[in-house]
Specification:
Elements lengths: L16 H4 L2 H6 L10 E4 L4 E3 L13 E4 L2 H5 L4 E2 L10 H18 L6 H7 L4 H12 L3 H17 L5 H7 L5 H12 L3 H5 L6 E9 L2 E7 L4 E7 L2 H11 L4 E4 L2 H14 L10 H17 L9 H7 L6 H10 L6
Parallel strand pairs: 2-4, 5-8
Antiparallel strand pairs: 1-2, 1-3, 5-6, 6-7
Helix pairs in contact: 4-7, 5-6, 7-8, 7-13, 12-13, 12-15, 14-15
Length: 330
């Protein structure tokens, strides 16, 4: 036979209406992003599933697609025991667990232990720890530290003494706080209360997936990471926080360093099911941790930033993330 006339017969299943439906590709890929968008039922097994079901892919000739959960139930088939399509999606369930844990951390006078948080969720400490980090990009301990740091900043502005502010923010020891105050506040607590008196603060303002972002650093460390809708409002907020500091914007090296860090830690899909305030706290902490790990007075390379966040093999990905990052200093 002439090779040009030869052809491979199309499998009958590929010609079925289901196989031709664009949604079928999501079923074949077990795409979790399609969960909740539609459902499918399998005549040969008598069950209906969500698109991400881990079961063996059925013959499309035996599959019907349904726009809603109600339509899938109307088939009379039972919900799949593996993907549980009649229950909230795993991502939604996990987000609810993490949100409750974050609120528990925020409301506690002192930081809850990992075992306590895991027990409240009826999960093992190891599993809960992994679940929390996947959802937020942080460990529960790091999230708690970020929340206490924000509380102490607020309390320093309204408490009668520095010591009272430290304890009101949930720190058990003023001595331990003072040891880390440079990293937490970017200056001494006294200087913070005095509006950044005599501090030289560099800042850069730009955009991230959560909106406008402002990063400010003193000679001691990061003193502010602000997120909001209006870049000008963030700059005014910084000025209000540190009215006695010398604020400088537009330094090329600092802007480039901030762009690298924000571009690297930017992960728009992390925590999409979580409330915006939790996502913001987690994002701020990830930026802070990466900047803190870069030695003062050095210019961070892509490889250096990758090492700083514990991903030494990802320099190429860092460069790509930074190139795609829309950080544009005002």
């Amino acid at each position: 036979m002439n090779a040009s006339l030869a052809h491979t017969p199309t499998h009958p299943a590929a010609r079925t209406p289901t196989a031709k439906d664009p949604r079928w590709a999501h079923v074949v890929a077990r795409d979790p992003a399609a969960d909740g968008q539609f459902y499918y039922s399998v005549a040969t097994t008598g069950v209906f599933c969500r698109p991400s079901c881990p079961s063996r892919t059925a013959n499309p000739a035996n599959v019907a697609l349904h726009d809603t959960l109600e339509a899938a139930r109307a088939t009379g088939f039972r919900p799949c025991k593996r993907c549980r399509p009649d229950e909230p999606a795993p991502e939604t369930r996990n987000a609810a667990i993490v949100e409750r844990a974050c609120r528990r951390i925020e409301e506690a006078e002192t930081a809850p232990a990992l075992a306590e948080l895991a027990g409240a969720a009826n999960l093992s400490p190891g599993y809960f720890h992994r679940l929390f980090k996947v959802a937020t990009g942080l460990t529960p301990k790091a999230y708690g530290a970020a929340h206490r740091a924000e509380r102490v900043r607020r309390e320093l502005g309204r408490s009668r003494t520095v010591t009272q502010a430290i304890y009101d923010a949930g720190f058990n020891s003023s001595g331990r706080f003072y040891e880390a105050s440079g990293e937490t506040l970017g200056m001494t607590p006294t200087a913070w209360r005095a509006g950044g008196a005599d501090a030289d603060i560099r800042f850069a303002v730009g955009q991230c997936s959560l909106g406008a972002i402002l990063v400010a650093m003193s000679g001691t460390g990061v003193c502010a990471i602000l997120i909001g809708d209006d870049p000008d409002a963030l700059a005014r907020d910084l000025q209000d926080r540190f009215p006695r500091a010398r604020l400088t914007g537009g330094e090329t090296d600092f802007e480039a360093e901030v762009a690298r860090v924000v571009g690297l830690v930017e992960a728009p899909r992390i925590g999409l099911d979580l409330p915006l305030d939790i996502r913001g706290t987690a994002f701020q902490r990830r930026v802070w941790a990466a900047l803190r790990a870069i030695p003062p007075g050095t210019t961070a390379s892509y490889a250096g930033v990758a090492r700083a966040i514990g991903a030494p093999g990802s320099a190429r990905a860092v460069a790509g993330a930074c190139a795609a990052n829309p950080l544009a200093v005002a």
